[in-house]
């Protein structure tokens, strides 16, 4: 039996789903095509639980009935769950390895990136896309990036990631085609890092 949603405090999604969804998709595609570049994605203004407009716009644009979404335990079952089920009609999963998209705001959820789907030889494109909500996308330790879509080198300095995050990411993305795509979000800002983007080192 399907549990009825409590819509009494439901916040709105896109005001114009078609127009704003298309605009958001273009921004996301541009960010994925230019890893390390910071883009503005402020189309979803009323996202619950301080997730931010960028992360909300990503899910409103990409999540649907065929894309299971995993929310970190502190968000599961709350207002964001209802918002996603209503606006995206996406299934919510408690199993991170089953998720097409995963959203996290805390270090605890990042302790083991191997818990997510890294793809397989037949369907490498079915790996989890991890959306991380951070305090800021600037002001942290500098990370140098290389890879497809970067002419020579790019630098980012997001705040709020665990000290060993980049080394763990390198490990899970070490096998060709396998790994997770990463979207870093803070407020209405987004930085995308496909699994093919390599981290060179930390430090300025």
Q: Features of this protein?
A:
single chain; 204 residues; alpha/beta; Rossmann fold; seven-stranded mixed beta sheet; three-stranded antiparallel beta sheet; 4 helices; 10 strands
Question: What would you note in describing this structure?
Answer:
With 204 residues, this protein is an alpha/beta fold. It has helices at residues 17-33, 53-62, 79-88, 165-172; strands at residues 38-40, 69-71, 92-93, 101-104, 129-133, 143-146, 154-156, 181-186, 189-193, 198-202. The chain has one domain: Rossmann fold (3-Layer(aba) Sandwich). It is globular, with a radius of gyration of 16 Å. The N and C termini lie far apart (55 Å). The mean pLDDT is 88.
Q: Sketch the major β-sheet.
A: 7 strands, mixed
CATH class assignment: Alpha Beta
- Uncertain runs are none
Number of domains: 1
- CATH structural fold name: Rossmann fold
Please report which band the strand proportion falls in: under 5%, 5-15%, 15-25%, 25-35%, 35-45% or over 45%.
15-25%
> What is the tally of helical segments?
4
Helix fraction?
A: 10-25%
Give the terminus-to-terminus CA distance: 55 Å
Oligomer: single chain
Strand order of the largest sheet: 1-9-8-5-4-2-3
Shape: globular
Element string (H = helix, E = strand): HEHEHEEEEEHEEE
Would you identify the CATH architecture? 3-Layer(aba) Sandwich
CATH superfamily: Bacterial phosphonate metabolism protein PhnH
Strand tally is 10
